């Protein structure tokens, strides 16, 4: 490496987020769901990728409805995308967040009769309170109005009018498994429930639900993981999304290792032959699961250096990962970037015995975020 090059790289790992890929994924899901509109689920800081930048990008692509988990997220998003779009808060209203709902014009998703009554107390005397969504539990048994309370919403005089709802929704538990019988059961339950509600927009499908077909689309679908390049079903070959994220970890040091030497914490890997290794600047603090570590029993995952694979060897530590570059043909220098995730997101999530959602949301805040558009930095 030339001396000038030796001073040209930072040890900080870089998380690249391809905004062009997000836009393309949004358009692909929009075409699949049409004539239903596509809303964006931007929970957990847009799945760890930055709610401000991602929100603005999707708004620019034509998205006009967004979902977040908490009112605080909604306030940040509202500041980023302006007053026009709808922003629904999935956790619903809570007393300490009432001012956020009013000040940022956030729409609460009502998940229970108790929430409904609390919200009505909060808006008593308010001239133009935000409209609301009703979330009915059709079989997920997580948040949502239980079947035992549905009749109250239907029969109590003035309740639905007072809530001023503009959306009725539910959430699929098994959309990732297209053949699971609960999908159809939830669909039928949702139809029966919605038939008792005012004529407003209906929404049932997450990303996996989009791939279940037209009967699940209604007026609005709410993808999340599909926007960010992750597969949402057990049939990923049928999905049409581009990878969005990569971790680029610079090579800090290169070493020659003798047969019989051990690598990393707890000496989990022993060199079977002489080998060359590269220590790269990314670890579990940056979002690489420790379960991807390479041991004597199994090499779990690989990074990409150029177009070649370099196995992870030894235990992934907080800040560093060791790669076997013995068989990498290209000359590897300090500062060279080892790339994780990208097209390997789903495979590496499976190898780590987790899901792509968790991988994305756990990407470390220490990584420098670089937003790109088809290869160009922004």
Low-confidence stretches: none
Tally of structural domains: 2
Main beta sheet strand tally, sense and closure: 7 strands, mixed
Structural class estimated from helices and strands: alpha/beta
Percent in helix: 25-40%
The count of β-strands is 20
Query: What is the typical, i.e. mean, pLDDT?
Result: 94
- From the N-terminal CA to the C-terminal CA, the straight-line distance is 28 Å
**Discrete helix count:** 13
Return Rg in Å.
24 Å
Question: Given this structure, which CATH class of the largest domain is correct?
Answer: Alpha Beta
From the spread of the alpha carbons, the general shape counts as elongated
CATH architectural designation of the largest domain: Alpha-Beta Barrel
Q: What does it look like?
A:
This protein is an alpha/beta fold. The chain folds into two domains: 3-13 and 243-377, Lyase, Ornithine Decarboxylase, Chain A, domain 1; 35-238, TIM Barrel. The protein is 28% helix and 22% strand. It is built from 13 helices and 20 strands. It has helices spanning 3-6, 19-33, 43-48, 51-60, 71-81, 98-103, 113-122, 147-155, 159-163, 181-194, 207-210, 345-351, 356-361, and strands at 14-18, 37-38, 40-41, 65-68, 86-89, 107-110, 132-135, 165-169, 201-203, 220-221, 245-257, 262-263, 269-270, 275-280, 302-305, 308-311, 321-324, 337-341, 368-373, 376-377. The strands form five sheets. Strands 1, 11, 14, 17, 18, 19 and 20 form a seven-stranded mixed beta sheet that branches. α4 (51-60) crosses α5 (71-81). 46% of the residues are buried. The mean pLDDT is 94.
């Amino acid at each position: 490496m030339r001396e000038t090059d030796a001073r040209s790289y930072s040890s900080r790992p870089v998380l690249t987020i391809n905004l062009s890929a997000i836009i393309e994924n949004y358009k692909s899901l929009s075409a699949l769901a049409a004539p239903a509109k596509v809303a964006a689920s931007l929970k957990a800081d847009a799945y760890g990728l930055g709610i401000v930048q991602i929100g603005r990008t999707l708004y620019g692509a034509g998205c006009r409805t967004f979902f977040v988990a908490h009112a605080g997220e909604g306030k940040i998003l509202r500041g980023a995308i302006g007053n026009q779009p709808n922003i629904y808060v999935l956790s619903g209203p809570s007393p300490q967040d009432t001012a956020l709902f009013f000040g940022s014009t956030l729409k609460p998703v009502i998940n229970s009769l108790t929430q409904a009554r609390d919200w009505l107390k909060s808006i008593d005397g308010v001239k133009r309170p935000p409209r609301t969504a009703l979330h009915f539990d059709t079989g997920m048994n997580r948040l949502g109005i239980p079947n035992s309370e549905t009749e109250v919403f239907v029969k109590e005089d003035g309740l639905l009018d007072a809530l001023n709802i503009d959306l009725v929704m539910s959430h699929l538990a098994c959309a990732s498994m297209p053949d699971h019988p609960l999908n159809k059961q939830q669909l039928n339950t949702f139809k029966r429930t919605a038939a008792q509600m005012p004529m407003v927009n209906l929404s049932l499908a997450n990303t996996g639900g989009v791939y279940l077909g037209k009967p699940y689309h209604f007026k609005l679908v709410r993808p999340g993981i599909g926007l960010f390049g992750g597969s949402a079903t057990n049939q990923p070959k049928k999905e049409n999304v581009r990878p969005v994220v990569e971790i680029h970890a610079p090579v800090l040091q290169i070493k020659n290792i003798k047969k019989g030497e051990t690598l990393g914490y707890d000496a989990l890997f022993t060199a079977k032959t002489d080998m060359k290794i590269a220590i790269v600047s990314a670890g579990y603090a940056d979002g690489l699961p420790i379960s991807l570590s390479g041991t004597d029993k199994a090499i779990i995952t690989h990074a990409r250096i150029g177009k070649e694979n370099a196995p992870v060897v030894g235990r992934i530590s907080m800040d560093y990962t060791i790669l076997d570059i013995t068989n990498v043909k290209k000359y590897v220098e300090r500062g060279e970037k080892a790339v994780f995730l990208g097209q390997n997101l789903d495979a590496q999530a499976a190898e780590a015995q987790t899901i792509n959602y968790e991988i994305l949301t756990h990407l470390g805040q220490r990584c420098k975020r670089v937003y790109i558009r088809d290869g160009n930095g922004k």
